[in-house]
Amino acid sequence: MMLRKRAWDMMRDEFPAVRDDASLAETIRVMRTAMVEAPDSQVVVVQNKAGKLVGAINLWQLFKAVRQSVLKDENLRQDGQVDWDQQFANACLICTQMRLDDYLIRNPPILKPNEPILLVLDTFLKSRRDWALVMEGDKVMGVVYVTDVYREMTRDMVQIF
């Protein structure tokens, strides 16, 4: 049964997305909102005005961006009196001005809707990512996470055990 599964069987058709002119702060907000309903969400799809894929930003890229803005001020690394609340507020303001361009994954792993689970696994292993976008033509239809594949695989495995 498991080997009959396709990418569309496991994909999440509701996924976080932003336009390519969104700020880092907006992207963080969108990711947090998505995590309320799906705590393992870890990628935001970035599209242009026409809805075409520009790239994606995952949690690691968001961490990298936040680190660069939060730790940018050399005062954070010095001993002495530092107003940490003010430094954090300043860093958050910086995030509202940061663009996504420097953090985009421009060639995200792509799956076709009818790709079998073995090709989905192969895509994860080759891309070294734990998510992939499901696309039909130039439209993003959904996202598959490695946790979704794991749940599908182990559902059948546990029954056999």
Automatic annotation (TrEMBL):
Pfam families: CBS. Residues 10-74, 104-160 form the CBS domain. Keywords: CBS domain. Gene3D superfamilies: CBS-domain (3.10.580.10). This is CBS domain-containing protein. The lineage of its organism: Bacteria, Pseudomonadati, Thermodesulfobacteriota, Desulfovibrionia, Desulfovibrionales.
